[in-house]
Every structure is written in structure tokens, then in C-alpha cells.
């Protein structure tokens, strides 16, 4: 899209002044990681991984850019720092070198409580990627006072941008919305260099009457990992 417009009310709705969205830019978290010896994993990868987790470390792998895969281990505390901050990007300190990488996949245990493995994908600072970014609604809509209910059908949108410009979230003001008014993806203002990669008519917020509140779709909480634009590369299992 050629530069997204500000938030406006569509023609079938009541007119109003444009509303701007705000984005919180994510920063790459710098963490220290330790390389693992691949020779020790032959035939006993699962056993070694269990030992690492018992010692408070999480197994991981760094791959991509046609360079050698590097099996790693990360402290449990650093892993949770990444998860709590919702970071997409990490600066991995491996001895005397530093690698910039995307958190490509997070593997949880069968109960969904503990992280048991991470995949990191090498990226360069100006490499464009696709990823999902959280949409955070801010304000109490005017339509709520009129007896309406704020409905948020989606909680994230897919955008494309450079690896170092991934927004941590996009904050959207909804205080101006009145009963039956709708806010679409095309109505929000994205940061410079960030492009929308979803249907522009995707509904982000809607003020509906209490009788018309939709049933949950069951899709909330789904996580889509960042995608490198124009590159498909598989990693070896470690």
C-alpha cells in the first residue's frame, strides 16, 4: 500500500475527525548463549535436552543465511525475558561474536506451560520480513455509553518491515467510536517503512449492540511466527 491513511470513519458511518494510531517499537534483546557440541547430541538429542532443562537451560538452534547451524543453550531466565517482552528480534552473544536473529519458533511442552526449545533465524538489519504485531485498543468508546459493546474480532495484524523496525504493538484509539461504527485495518496509521499485509477491510474494532455480540471464533491466541520475505530455507533438526 502507498502509505496508509489515518483513522477515518467510512462513508456508511457517521463522519468524524481522523484518529491516529500509535506504535511501540520493539528493541532487540541482547542475551548470552552457549554453543552446544553437536557430537554429543548424536542419537541422544532428547536426553541431552532434558539434562539441559534440568540444569535451568533451554536448548535452541541458530540457522539461516546459508551458514552452518549452531546448536545453542540459553538460560531459562533469558528465555522468559524474551517471551514476556514479546520480542521478535534478539542479539545473540556467542563467545566473542554477535548474531542478529529472529525468534522463528517457540516449542512448548504438552501442557503449554514450559518452553522446551527455540529456533532462531539469522537476519540482517535491513532485511524485510513479515510478522504479526499485536493490536492494542485504547480508550472507552462513546458507543459504550449508548448501550453498545466493544468487539475486537482480531488481536493482531500481519505487517512487513525491516527486521530492526518491527513494532512491539500498535496502539489504536477507539474512544471516538459510536454505536455501530467500525474500525478497519486500512484506517490505522502505520510507522514509516511498515506496510500492511492483511485485507484492508479487516475489522479491528466494532461497537455493537449487546444483542448482537458475536460468539467467540476460537482463533484467539494463535501465534504466527515471522516470515522472511523472498527466502525459504530449512534447518536441520537438532
Characterization of this structure:
This protein has helices at 45-54, 76-85, 142-145, and strands at residues 21-25, 29-35, 57-64, 67-75, 89-94, 97-108, 115-122, 128-138, 148-151, 156-162, 167-173, 182-184, 195-196, 203-209, 227-228. The chain is elongated. A hairpin with a 2-residue loop joins β3 (57-64) and β4 (67-75). It has a domain at 29-124: Ribosomal Protein L25, Chain P (Beta Barrel). The strands form three sheets. Strands 1, 8, 10, 11, 13 and 15 form a six-stranded mixed beta sheet that branches. A six-stranded mixed beta barrel has the order 2-4-3-7-6-5. Strands 9-14-12 form a three-stranded antiparallel beta sheet. The two termini are 40 Å apart. Mean pLDDT is 78; it is low at 1-20. Helices cover 10% and strands 41% of the residues. With 238 residues, it is mostly beta strands.
